[in-house]
Each structure stands twice: as C-alpha cells, then as structure tokens.
C-alpha cells in the first residue's frame, strides 16, 4: 500500500513520458499506414471490378463459360468482393445465381469459397446450396453458379409489414441457422461472418420456401484437418467478420473457433428478439465501443434484463453464459442451445405449426426441424 502510494506520488521522468508518447505515436502511425493500405487495396479492387466483372447494367447479358451459356437476368447482390447475378442456363432454361469475382482482385476469395462449397455439397444438410458450375471467363472473372435462393434475412425483415420478425419466426430462424452452423462445423469449417445478409430463405418453386440457407463462405477458415483434430491457434489474428455481430475473440484479434460462430449467431438472434440491439448506432469502424457494450451486457445484469424485458431473458442469458464458458477447442453442445430455443418457444406460446412471417398464407410450417443427436450424414453413404 505504502509502496504504491509512493509510486503514485513519484514524478514520472521525462524519459518515461517520451517513451510512452513514442509508443502511442508508433501505434497511431501503424494504424494510419494500415488504413492507407486498406484504402489502396479497396480502390484497386473497385477498379478491377469495374474493368473485369460482367457489365449487366451496361447491356452485357450473356456469359459463355467453357461448358454452358448463361443469360444474365438480374443483379441479386453487390458485395465488397464481387457481385451476384441471377442467370438462366440456356441449355435447359433453369434459373441460378452466379457469383463473380474479378481475376485482378488483391486477394482472391472465390476459389476458396468454391472449395468450401464443394466440401459442403457432400453433406446431407438442407441448409447449403448446391454449386452446379464454377470456372473462369476469358481471364476476366472467376465464377461459381449456385442454386437460386430467395431474399436474405436482412432484406426480408425490411420487407415485413412491421419490419420485425415475430418471436415464432425468430425462433424458427434461430433453430435452422444453428443447425446450419453445426453442419458447417462438422465438415471442419468456421464461417466467421455470421450476420442476417449471409442467410437466405428458399424459393416456393423448389419447395424450400420455409428453409433458411447459409451463404457466403468467403471468410471461412478450415480448423480441422485430416488426421488432426484442430489447428493450433495463431497468437494474433487480423479482425475478421462484421463489427455488429463479431464475437469477443474477433474483437480481441484472437483466433476464432466454433464457439465464436455461435456467439455471433447469438447477437444475430438477440437483435431479432429485442429489435434495437444497444450497439446498433455504431459503425463498423467503432469496434472498441461495440466491444465495450458487448462486455457490459455480460457484466450488468439489470441492463441484460432490461434488454430482454419482453421475453426470452432466461433462455438467452443461459445460452450466452454457456458460450462464455467454452474455449478455443470446445465443440459447442448445439443440442443444449436448441433446448433453450425450444423452452423459449414453449414459454411464449409459439405454435409449432405457424408458417414463417414471409409466408402468412401457408397453412403450416414446412421447413426443416432441428434434429437432436443428428448423425453426420455424407450423401454418398446413404
Ligand atoms: N444463390 C443465391 N441466390 C440468390 N441470391 C443470392 C445467392 N447468393 C447470394 N445472393 C444474394 O447476394 C448477396 C451477396 O451474396 P454474398 O454474401 O455471397 O456475396 P459477397 O460478395 O461475399 O457479399 P459481402 O461482401 O457483402 O459479404 C446475398 O446477401 C444475397 O442477397
């Protein structure tokens, strides 16, 4: 005690202050340098996209690949790394989605994504899209052709009359997205960018209108290898993900693991339940503030209770408490999480028969139902 008081009263030497200032300056300079690098890479990527990508809006309406001709019919999405188009395969007039990426991107993402999709296509899970074609066009852009799905969960919410999902639909979404993540983890991948735009509903035409699909495997990381259970975590990693839904491990530049995908999933579902998640107003660059609020949620029970005052306090707090106990190597108990979702549905009188909000005319729910102790099923083994 005496010692610490003594230390506090001691004047800091100019040298100490100088060193501290230099460290801070260095950090600031490093941040500025990284910021400039990111900006430069972004500008280069944008230029490459403008030059190489299908120019649908300028009248380019047909893509000839090595084996097929596709007619471009719409633009379904524009991402930071590329674009997704609606296409019709000329040979059989079937509709698909074509995701494209310029060959001149600073870092190619699509070949990696195609690899993940290929692995997932061996799995018997209703939550992944079949990849029907992939390749390169005239050394201009890379592409993958995927089964077409409907609106993503972000856009869908904005289209609903109240711009909100009901609790029944939220819990159905929670159950299906949890099953999708469980299946992805089982093939040894982490998603690392769980957010509503990366899930989409199916299409009436395919009888998958009530199914939720997982999209965008560009940030996936393989964590389990053949003959090795788990990759050794790196000491420090660059931030990956989307600030609003990022797990604390991502905020702390730590190696992410299965539990962190589920933590991101928790933020996504919490947002659907409470509508206004407390860190909603912060931008992607405000990572420190968002991290602080995610910590407050854990430390301040009154705040947590207030947030879930309308419903699901017990279940959501039990799930988060459980997730926070897991470590890098833990395999989350998805069934345990599901039990809490089931409990929330029972306590809140959610009908198991109700169709999802986007299909109010339907008589009943016809989407996939979470199966406990679901065995790992590879298609070829059936
Ligand atoms: N198979 C598909 N069918 C219909 N729409 C799709 C399909 N795949 C993607 N989309 C639409 O395109 C959007 C962007 O897709 P995706 O996230 O795969 O691309 P991205 O370039 O990685 O995007 P971002 O950089 O924003 O993450 C999705 O939110 C969805 O609305």
Automatic annotation (TrEMBL):
Transmembrane annotation, as ranges: none
Record has Kinase as a keyword: yes
Binding-site positions, ATP: 99
Annotated GO CC locations: cytoplasm; nucleus
Short name of any one Pfam family annotated for the protein: Pkinase
GO annotation, biological process: signal transduction
Entry keyword ATP-binding: yes
Record's compositionally biased regions (Basic and acidic residues): 14-40
Domain Protein kinase: 70-382
Gene Ontology MF terms in the entry: ATP binding; protein serine/threonine kinase activity
Polar residues bias: start-end ranges: 1-11
Region Disordered, annotated ranges: 1-55
The entry's keywords: ATP-binding, Kinase, Nucleotide-binding, Transferase
Name of the featured protein: Protein kinase domain-containing protein
